[in-house]
Amino acid sequence: MNGQLWLLPSRLGAQAARLLAAHDVPVFGWRSRSSGPPAAFPSSKDGGSSSYMEEMYFAWLENPQSVHKSWDSFFRKASEEASSGSAQPQPTSVTRESRSVVSSRTKTSKLVEDHLAVQSLIRAYQIRGHHVAQLDPLGILDADLDSFVPSDLITTIDKLAFYDLQETDLDKEFQLPMTTFIGGSENTLSLREIIRRLENTYCQHIGLEFMFINDVEQCQWIRQKFETPGVMQFSSEEKRTLLARLVRSMRFEDFLARKWSSEKRFGLEGCEVMIPALKTIIDKSSEMGIENVILGMPHRGRLNVLANVIRKDLEQIFCQFDPKLEAADEGSGDVKYHLGMYHERINRVTNRTITLSLVANPSHLEAVDPVVQGKTKAEQFYRGDAQGKKVMSILVHGDAAFAGQGVVYETFHLSDLPSYTTNGTVHIVVNNQIGFTTDPRMARSSPYPTDVARVVNAPIFHVNADDPEAVMYVCSVAAEWRNTFNKDVVVDLVCYRRRGHNEMDEPMFTQPLMYKQIHRQVPVLKKYADKLIAEGTVTLQEFEEEIAKYDRICEEAYGRSKDKKILHIKHWLDSPWPGFFNVDGEPKSMTCPATGISEDVLTHIGSVASSVPLEGFKIHTGLSRILRGRADMIKNRTVDWALAEYMAFGSLLKEGIHVRLSGQDVERGTFSHRHHVLHDQEVDRRTCVPMNHLWPDQAPYTVCNSSLSEYGVLGFELGYAMASPNALVLWEAQFGDFHNTAQCIIDQFISTGQAKWVRHNGIVLLLPHGMEGMGPEHSSARPERFLQMSNDDSDAYPAFTKDFEVSQLYDCNWIVVNCSTPANYFHVLRRQILLPFRKPLIIFTPKSLLRHPEAKSSFDQMVSGTSFQRVIPEDGVAARAPEQVRRLIFCTGKVYYDLVKERSSQGLEEKVAITRLEQISPFPFDLIKQEAEKYPRAELAWCQEEHKNMGYYDYISPRFMTILRRTRPIWYVGRDPAAAPATGNRNTHLVSLKKFLDTAFNLQAFEGKTF
């Protein structure tokens, strides 16, 4: 009945009201189109529903168009049945007296009620049939955590009573509604047959959740796929293929268990059907045109997927079990069941080429979800695959993680956003019905672990994993759904975990009853083989030969795995960048080219940035002032922060580099400084992106406001940057400290990605930072965290070679900068692309400096021949007489402008020099050494606006000591240690600022102190 309009009397009878309201049927009051209400009829014993249905019936007799067309059709058929073949003429007009001659009204009313009851019964199965489906292969748990059976589905007798039907009605024929396909080509069925077919569809090994979807077409599509009689039929060849895939899945795990019984491998035992399930989705998708599949999954079953889905060479997997294998041998610092893979091969079912990528990920199980989505989106973008018909993603989840980890929800909410959608993902939940040692009743509040998917109207197909054919059918439908509707779909494989959390774990400690049953459980391979042998699809000999064949393949690969020559990191890359690291077969030159550009290009970009490229486009008057201000800056050959960013992006677009900027409110900019998307003030949703109107053949620029998510969106952008090195991908936090909720992505993927998985990534994080009295939640981007995770050695005195800057960058795990000038921001963005390798770039961006009158740069600092300055030395009076300088203050970022202002007010320009560190990590040892040696008589001080236990001091101090060989101290100037990063009281902020500025310029402050 989903989507139908049910027109019933406004004073609905109790029976009809109870049936319809129980099944969420939209009911609207009905009134005759005649001039007055119809005559009263005697009420029936159930509350009057019969009499009111009779009113509708007689109104229909008067005028068939007075009721909805579905009732018109229904009454025509009901009247024919009630008349038992002696059909009465259908008058177009009937008087009150003519009603009294209709002797069959009670019979007709009962017939109407019975048909309505049967339709409600059908809807009950469609809505709640999954609650009584036989989903648990162990037969001891309820997949929905509740043994309650809905009263309208409990037993045949109770069921009939609920709908006011009798046992004698079981053999009566009923008209089937348009919202079911159980009849196939038949329009009527007996009630007994209706119930039988509904039971077979909704209450066996498949449980369907889809009736919450608010699209009639989609609901009808699912009903047709599952209700149509005979749809779940497989040919003998398909069954044999399924059996062979199960053999490979199970025997692979058995082989590992025999060879490495004491090794952790997080095997798939208990859900071996996942391998043929994945292969079915890939086969079906390939058949529909998919050429690239990107997978993400946790560690359970990963080795099996690598071997039997991605088809990684078995010897490459087996050699990872070598106890003498060192991380350096593979270039990887992670365990084998976290590694990724990229492989292009022929799909043997479709004979089409398909590329499969399994993305490496850590034990933060669901953290890989948005990464996969971002990589998929990028692959679709570069292929021009706007509808997702060539590239798709598959995500495998564990039940406990799927229900428990919030990034799942964040990722689902990206699924339909224009700049983030991947046009549908197939989700497979390996539902072990246990999380490590935690019972599902203690692990979630929702009935199913998959309930989070309901928020985006994704259908959920629960299936008993010990029924391989049911699994295959569900997976085939899931792949077809994704291709048809470009929406997410979830397959919930209800299974069990034969061993503990890992192979060394003892699950009987905590789940004794479950594991007693598991120990008695017949493996799915034996069950299915016995079934096929019994029906004559295969013989016992053929089955045993299939097992022997795969065992032989494993043994031969095991022998080859002893050869150390097979080890090579290329086998474990999930995102290879062919041609990037080499030019004409030779490694790229390790140099850092100048990042400046010609003044003509700067002027052209500036003119576009200060104009509206579209005719008749009405912008806000306040924005007109901003654009005029940009035009004035161009005339004066200067740029502020926003314009410098525009210049960097625009110049890269000219060079064919795709630029993508994503985050919360990045289109305008949190601080209303960017305005990369203009909005027509008179035409709703008419926008203009001037950056895409710079040159006719430029690369595309994507700027997109994200959902209010950091974890999910940063993961997405990381995956996007992973797909290609020839793109500048940036994520901006609304405030720098908001990266707190994305810390998992930063820790697990960004800072360690290269060390664990040899994965280069050039993602840029823009983190607004600065102490301005705005409170602890909007001040600090926590630079100390990034610096603590930097891998350069504070105690190692470096060798200053000619290419010291580039070699430092090549060896580091990421680059951390805090630019104090727009020009340096411009250069560091361009350097990010011009380097011959890729490293993550962390930029602490300003807030107040966005409009600071002194924070402007000249074109002279950006034109050809200029480049990024890791350190900006003092260039004033003090630099011209360095022997007279008594204090050399090192600093970074916004505090420089406070220091310059204070120095000027105290008239100490000759006595105090101020040097800025623009690149903090890797630490510019060479330039710091030069600056310190330039001022031999000066005290050295480090000044920061952050508290002493935060910010940069703990990072820079030991490095200063190393480069100065501990001959001179570096004194700290700044705020005292504190728990919170900043105060929210403006006066307290100014008092503490004045205090440390006084210390910075008190030339006797450090006399008599030792270090």
List its traits.
single chain, 1011 residues, alpha/beta, Helix Hairpins, Rossmann fold, 5 domains, 8-stranded mixed sheet, 7-stranded mixed sheet, disordered N terminus
**Runs with pLDDT <50, length 5+?**
1-51, 84-104
Strand order of the largest sheet: 5-11-12-10-9-6-8-7
DSSP strand content: 5-15%
| Assigned CATH superfamily of the largest domain | Thiamin diphosphate (ThDP)-binding fold, Pyr/PP domains
The coarse silhouette is: globular
Helical proportion? 25-40%
**Main beta sheet:** 8 strands, mixed
The total of helices stands at 35
Q: Report Rg.
A: 35 Å
CATH architecture of the largest domain: 3-Layer(aba) Sandwich
Oligomer: single chain
- The figure for the number of domains is 5
What structural category do the secondary elements indicate?
alpha/beta
Distance between the termini: 82 Å
CATH topology of the largest domain: Rossmann fold
Number of strands: 30
For the record, what CATH class of the largest domain applies?
Answer: Alpha Beta
State mean pLDDT (0 to 100 scale): 88
Could you characterize what this model shows?
With 1011 residues, this protein is of the alpha/beta class. It has five domains: 6-118, no CATH class; 129-205, Helix Hairpins, CATH 1.10.287; 236-572, 3-Layer(aba) Sandwich (Rossmann fold), CATH 3.40.50; 599-769 and 818-861, Rossmann fold; 871-1000, 3-Layer(aba) Sandwich (Rossmann fold), CATH 3.40.50.11610. The strands form eight sheets. It has an eight-stranded mixed sheet with strand order 5-11-12-10-9-6-8-7, with helices on both faces. Helix 30 links the parallel strand 22 and strand 23. The protein is globular.
